[in-house]
């Protein structure tokens, strides 16, 4: 009993209560046991608080200067992709929940809120709105970027539409839209486009994309006025947008330096002749555009693009080359007129390769230094390397990148290395000083004899070679 009295005295002292000895109480033992459990619970709570505070004091991160923590926090926040983020996974919120010290840093450093990434679903749509308010309050008056992924939302649900209206108001109200310099929005309600164009007047970069599941004709039925000039916009990337809207957006952004349009939607009710009559039928020049990617649609739309659009400062150009493609002669004229500034050309190919067509195009752009081939099957690997052995095809070439589709076939043909050696040997013979050959999503063998064959090209020190496979430099 003395030991019990001692424990009870200590517990009461810690809990700030008076201790009544058992011999003086007259209560039955069960009452003491109940009281003892309560006191023991209080002891456990106090001990837990003590251990937590002690661990914070002992923690190596607690001794880190705030300047170091800020650098770490900034790297963490900038590395999160919108597909991996959510209201519960917002990096700023996670970092702030570690300790009060970290929370103070996160709250007081507006640069940590320059980028906001979140994936919005049916389940977390409601909780995203207050999170956006926190973001708006913390980033203060700093230029910022926003990444939103709204895949999976049902636009036909009245409840979802109501929530999206509140969400739209949270994003595009006050000074928030004017401070946004970059937006990457995946699968937003199409009517948001009008708000973005009209409210975000200082945007430098805009990416808009939709998926096949939410790009039916019905969602684009509302008229979308996009004629407001976006003079500040420099980079525009759009995916699965109606073709007429693609042209409207492009014509509204005269100062673009990069434009990417992939898989534009063409519906039977689109009237290109009527649209072109309402718009200009004369050449349009984009003097600052340096990077251009365009996926062809149908003959009349491609014809309009190739005939009337000019890019005198182009440095990078990507275009699909398919057998039986329309506007062949017009495309050849377009390529022949590409400016001397062009450095990189990307061919997006189909499984059926029209080699004579590709060779004809490459002969028209002898000045380029980088060639990229995307979607070409591995069975065409050796044939492509053989084609590059001709000195009249791309004589200034210094880099080549072969990008195969993920999950594509594996190149088991060992002859590709000998063809690569032959191509590099020809490049060296005609004066090329260095060459980089890169393969992406390609599984292939790299044997000791292959390594030795390539190494012999560098033995005199006058030719530098770098061969990269799936982002790893191959030893040679």
UniProtKB/TrEMBL annotation:
<dbReference type="InterPro" id="IPR032675">
    <property type="entry name" value="LRR_dom_sf"/>
</dbReference>
<protein>
    <recommendedName>
        <fullName>F-box domain-containing protein</fullName>
    </recommendedName>
</protein>
